[in-house]
C-alpha cells in the first residue's frame, strides 16, 4: 500500500492509505462448534509508524472501530508505540497486539525457544504496563472527580440543614454518589484471550493460541478453553501424570520441564526454520510436511533459496491472512457495536472512560441514528472527513482508459463492420474513430491544476449518493448554540457531492452510493472544507434540526520545524503560493504562514516530514525549483511552581524554604542580532 516513490525508497509508510476488502470466514466458537461461512467487509487503513507522521495516526484513529498495534519483537516498546497506544486509548479503540518479526529471534538473535519465551513474556509485560499507566491516570482523575462531587453535595446538604449534620454523618449517607469499582482485566493484552498475534509478515505466517489449543485439545484430552489458558505463561505438562503444573508445583517437582508454550508452539516453529533455513534436512522436511498434512508445490521443493521452501511451509501451516482476519472478526467490534461506546464520547468530551450506560444512552433521534450506525432511508446522514488529500489528475478513474473485456471488443468490432457494410467505404472513412472514442472516457477540461483534492471520510449513519447536497459543519461550529444562530451560520456550508470512491490503496473505484460504516473518498469539498469537517443531511431533504460537530477537537501535535521558502526564479512566486495552499490542504500536520514581509514559511513535525513536504512542493503542487532556509527549531523554557516540601521526619528539623528572600549570582552576555532573532522565534 506504500505507493509513493519515497516510501518505497525508504521502506517506510509516510501517509495513511485505505483499502476495502471482502472475505469469507468460518469461525470456531469457544465451545468448539464451527459457524457457517459468512461474508465480511473490512475497511483497512494503513498508518505510518514514524514519529514525524503521528498526525496521520491521529486523523485515522477517529475513522476506525479497532486497531492492530504492531510491535517489533526485537526492538520492543518504543516511543511511537506508546504514542499509538495513547491515541487508541483516547479514541476508545479496541486493539489487537501484533508481535511481528518473530523470524528475527531465530535467524538474527539465534535465541532458543526458551529464551524467546522469556523475551515474549517481557514484551507483553511492557505493553501492558503502558496500558496500566493509562488506566491508573484515568482512575485517579475519576476518583478526584468523585471526591469533589461528594464534597460538593455534602456542603449543599449541610447548608440545607443549617449545619446540623454530625461530623461522621458521611459514613451513613446513602444518597451521595458511591465510589464505583471497575474491572480492568479486559483492557490488557493476553494471548489466552486471543487479542495477541505472533507473526512474521516477511515470511507470511502468523498464529494465535487458539490455533494450537484446537490442535492439541483432542490429543491431550483437555478442554480447548482450558488448554488455551495453560499455553501461555509458566505452565508445564507432566509427561508422567499428564497433569498441568503451575510454577510452584513445577519448582517442587525439581525436574527440568519446558513451559507448554515452548513445548507445543515454539519448538515446532523453530524446527521448521532449523531444517529448512539453518541446515537443510530433506528427511525432516518430508516428515514435517507429512505430519502437518501440507501440499507443497514441487517448484518450492526444488527451490535453491531455502527461505522459499520455509515460507511455503509456514504460509500453508499458519496463514497470515486467515489469522489476521479471524482476530479482527473475533476481537474487534462492528461499526454498530463500536459507535455505541465511542460516538457518545466524541460528541460529549466530558464523558470519561468510566461513563455509565445511562450517560452513554442517546437523547434524541439524531443520536439514536448515530450511535446505532443506522443506514435506512429515515436515518440522518452523518459523515466525518478526517483530512483532505491530493490525487494526481491522471490517477483519477474518470481520466483513465477503459479496459474493455473480450466480449465488448468483439461487439465493438461487429458494430464497426456493420457500419462499414451499410454506409460504404467512403462513409466509413469520414466516420469518427470509434476505436479511440470507445477506448477512452471523456476527460475533464484542463483548469491548470494537476491535482484533485478529495476528502478522506467515514460514514457513521445514513447513506450518501452522488449528486446529493449535504451540509458541511466546519470545526469552529459551536454545538451549544442553535444551527440558526448568527455565530454558527458562517460555519455551515452547502456542497454537492460530485463523486464517491472506494479506496484500494493508490487506486480509486468510483461508486454511486456508500452505506453507513464504510470508509470512502469524496469529491466536491474543495473550497468548502479546508482540512476536516462533518457532513450532514436530513432524510428526504428536510431541514436539519440537530447538528453535531465531530471535527471540533485537535487531533495532533503542533509542528515545530520552521523553514522559509522562495522560488529560484521570481517569476515562479505565484506557483509557489498556489502550491503552498494545496500543501496546506493536503497535509493534516503542516502549517503554512504568509508573513507580512512577503516571506513564505512552513512548519513541519520533523526533518523527515519536512523532506516529504519539500518533495511534494517541487514535484506535485508548485512544480518549480524551490530554495529553503536551514530549519529552525524553537527551544522554549519556563518556570512552574513546584509542590510544597514534605514535612520533616524529625520535629523541628529544617527542610528548606519555598518562599522568602535569597541571593543568586548570574552573568549576562550581549548577543548579536542574529541570536536575538533566533530567541524571538
From TrEMBL:
Residues 418-431 have a biased composition (Low complexity). One of its GO terms (molecular function) is GTPase activity. The keyword DNA damage does not apply. Keywords: GTP-binding, Nucleotide-binding. GO terms for biological process: cytosolic ribosome assembly. Residues 157-177, 416-449 are annotated as: Disordered. It holds the Pfam family EFG_III. GO terms for cellular component: cytosol; ribonucleoprotein complex. Residues 1-240 form the Tr-type G domain. It comes from the Eukaryota. Signal peptide: none annotated. InterPro entries: EFG_II (IPR041095), EFG_III/V (IPR035647), P-loop_NTPase (IPR027417), Small_GTP-bd (IPR005225), T_Tr_GTP-bd_dom (IPR000795), Transl_B-barrel_sf (IPR009000). Residues 434-446 have a biased composition (Basic and acidic residues). PROSITE patterns: G_TR_2 (PS51722). PANTHER family: ELONGATION FACTOR-LIKE GTPASE 1 (PTHR42908:SF3), TRANSLATION ELONGATION FACTOR-RELATED (PTHR42908). This is Tr-type G domain-containing protein.
Amino acid at each position: 500500500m506504500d505507493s509513493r516513490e519515497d516510501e518505497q525508497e525508504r521502506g517506510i509508510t509516510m501517509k495513511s492509505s485505505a483499502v476495502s476488502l471482502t472475505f469469507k470466514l468460518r469461525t470456531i466458537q469457544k465451545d468448539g462448534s464451527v459457524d457457517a461461512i459468512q461474508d465480511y467487509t473490512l475497511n483497512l487503513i494503513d498508518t505510518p509508524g514514524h514519529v514525524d507522521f503521528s498526525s496521520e495516526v491521529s486523523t485515522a484513529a477517529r475513522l476506525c472501530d479497532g486497531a492492530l498495534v504492531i510491535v517489533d519483537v526485537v526492538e520492543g516498546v518504543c516511543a511511537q508505540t506508546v504514542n499509538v497506544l495513547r491515541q487508541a486509548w483516547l479514541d476508545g479503540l479496541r486493539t489487537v497486539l501484533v508481535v511481528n518479526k518473530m523470524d528475527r529471534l531465530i535467524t538474527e538473535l539465534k535465541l532458543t525457544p526458551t529464551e524467546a519465551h522469556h523475551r515474549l513474556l517481557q514484551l507483553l509485560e511492557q505493553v501492558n504496563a503502558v496500558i496500566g499507566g493509562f488506566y491508573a491516570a484515568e482512575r485517579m482523575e475519576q476518583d478526584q472527580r468523585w471526591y469533589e462531587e461528594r464534597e460538593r453535595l455534602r456542603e449543599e446538604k449541610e447548608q440545607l440543614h443549617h449545619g446540623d449534620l454530625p461530623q461522621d454523618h458521611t459514613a451513613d449517607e446513602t444518597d451521595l454518589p458511591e465510589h464505583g469499582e471497575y474491572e480492568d482485566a479486559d483492557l490488557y493484552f493476553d494471548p489466552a484471550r486471543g487479542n495477541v498475534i505472533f507473526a512474521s509478515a516477511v515470511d507470511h505466517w502468523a498464529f494465535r493460541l487458539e490455533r494450537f489449543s484446537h490442535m492439541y485439545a483432542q490429543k491431550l484430552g483437555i478442554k480447548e478453553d482450558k488448554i488455551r489458558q495453560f499455553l501461555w505463561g509458566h505452565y508445564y505438562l507432566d509427561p508422567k501424570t499428564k497433569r498441568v503444573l503451575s510454577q510452584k508445583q513445577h519448582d517442587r517437582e525439581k525436574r527440568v520441564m519446558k513451559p507448554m508454550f515452548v513445548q507445543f508452539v515454539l519448538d515446532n516453529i523453530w524446527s521448521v526454520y532449523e531444517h529448512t533455513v539453518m541446515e537443510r534436512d530433506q528427511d525432516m522436511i518430508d516428515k514435517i510436511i507429512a505430519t502437518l498434512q501440507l501440499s507443497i508445490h514441487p517448484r518450492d521443493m526444488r527451490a535453491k533459496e531455502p527461505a522459499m521452501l520455509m515460507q511455503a511451509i509456514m504460509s500453508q501451516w499458519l496463514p497470515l491472512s486467515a489469522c489476521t482476519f479471524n482476530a479482527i472478526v473475533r476481537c474487534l467490534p462492528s461499526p454498530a457495536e463500536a459507535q455505541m461506546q465511542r460516538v457518545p464520547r466524541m460528541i460529549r468530551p466530558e464523558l470519561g472512560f468510566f461513563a455509565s450506560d445511562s450517560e452513554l444512552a442517546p437523547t434524541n433521534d439524531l443520536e439514536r441514528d448515530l450511535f446505532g450506525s443506522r443506514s435506512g432511508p429515515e436515518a440522518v446522514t452523518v459523515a466525518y472527513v478526517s483530512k483532505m488529500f491530493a490525487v494526481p489528475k491522471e490517477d483519477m478513474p474518470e481520466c483513465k482508459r477503459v479496459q474493455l473485456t473480450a466480449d465488448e471488443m468483439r461487439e465493438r468490432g461487429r458494430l464497426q463492420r456493420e457500419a462499414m457494410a451499410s454506409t460504404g467505404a467512403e462513409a466509413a472513412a469520414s466516420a469518427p474513430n470509434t476505436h479511440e472514442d470507445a477506448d477512452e472516457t471523456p476527460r475533464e477540461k484542463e483548469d491548470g491544476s494537476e491535482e484533485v483534492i478529495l476528502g478522506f471520510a467515514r460514514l457513521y449513519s445514513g447513506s450518501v449518493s452522488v449528486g446529493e447536497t449535504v451540509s458541511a459543519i466546519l470545526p469552529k461550529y459551536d454545538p451549544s448554540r442553535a444551527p440558526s444562530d448568527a455565530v454558527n451560520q458562517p460555519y455551515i456550508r452547502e456542497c454537492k457531492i460530485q463523486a464517491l470512491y472506494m479506496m484500494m490503496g493508490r487506486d480509486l473505484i468510483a461508486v454511486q452510493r456508500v452505506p453507513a460504516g464504510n470508509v470512502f473518498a469524496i469529491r466536491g469539498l474543495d473550497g468548502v472544507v479546508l482540512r476536516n469537517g462533518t457532513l450532514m443531511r436530513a432524510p428526504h431533504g428536510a431541514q436539519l434540526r440537530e447538528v453535531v460537530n465531530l471535527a471540533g477537537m485537535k487531533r495532533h501535535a503542533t509542528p515545530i520545524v520552521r523553514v522559509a521558502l522562495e522560488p529560484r526564479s521570481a517569476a515562479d512566486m505565484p506557483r509557489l503560493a498556489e502550491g503552498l495552499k494545496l500543501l496546506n490542504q493536503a497535509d493534516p500536520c503542516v502549517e503554512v504562514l504568509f508573513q507580512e514581509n512577503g516571506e513564505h514559511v512552513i512548519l513541519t513535525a520533523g526533518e523527515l516530514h519536512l523532506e516529504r513536504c519539500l518533495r511534494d512542493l517541487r514535484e506535485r503542487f508548485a512544480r518549480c525549483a524551490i530554495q529553503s532556509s536551514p530549519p529552525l527549531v524553537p527551544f522554549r523554557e519556563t518556570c512552574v511552581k513546584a509542590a510544597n516540601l514534605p514535612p520533616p521526619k524529625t520535629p523541628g528539623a529544617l527542610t528548606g524554604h519555598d518562599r522568602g528572600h535569597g541571593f543568586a549570582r548570574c552573568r549576562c552576555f550581549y548577543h548579536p542580532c542574529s541570536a536575538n532573532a533566533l530567541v524571538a522565534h
